[in-house]
Amino acid sequence: MRILIKNILILIIGFSYFGFAVDSKFCDKDTEIRIKWVDNLNGDFGFITKWSYPEGIFKNKFGQLSCDGICPKGIESMKDSEDKIYADSMPRFYQLVDTTHLFHSISCEAWCYEWAGTDFITAKQKNKNQITCVTHSSSGTHCKLILEIKNDTCIPRIELNSISSLGLKTYYCQGGFIKIDRESWIKGILKAEFDFDFNNTDEPVREMFWKGKIYTMIEKK
Length: 221
Known about the structure:
This protein is α+β, with helices and mostly antiparallel strands. The chain has helices at 2-24, 90-96, 182-186, and strands at 33-34, 36-38, 51-52, 57-59, 65-67, 102-103, 106-111, 121-127, 130-135, 143-150, 153-161, 168-181, 189-198, 208-219. The strands form 3 sheets. The protein has a 7-stranded mixed β-barrel. A two-stranded antiparallel ribbon has the order 3-6. A hairpin with a 5-residue loop joins β4 and β5.
């Protein structure tokens, strides 16, 4: 009985250690990218004048903004058999359906699994010297770029929430650069240019990368 208990304890300790080792890879010094702070980050940031409607919002053949996909309950009764919104239902329809103009905050190219592009990234302040940036996923894009920026370092990773396999998968950065505009940062804006390569553990010979430009307000804690 003592031998059995001892073996169980050894297994528990072993699994705990393994879990810690996996998690600690996020803090591995090899994944940290040194930030290059610049006084005036040049380049084309014109994408910030472009905008999109929320996903699922489109113009129907009658020129009305309508909703397709995941939509608020009750709006189907506000449309006729040809999907035209009744005139007297339009005020209520647009109270329920979000037709906000969403201005783009990232312009990027990437290759990762289940990627169909993204135009949006959110930057949130975690504490005085640290922010977390996350790109937005969509019905076609199930991978996210995550940047942990603290002091003068950035730790990038890609998280894939696949629709074809169970569980969340993480790919760690293995090289690249990020430049951040110092003056914009002081004003609470992340203006950056980046180019990262990632360790593709599924297909090592296939390049996984994410590069582009960011311009977004940093949301305060």
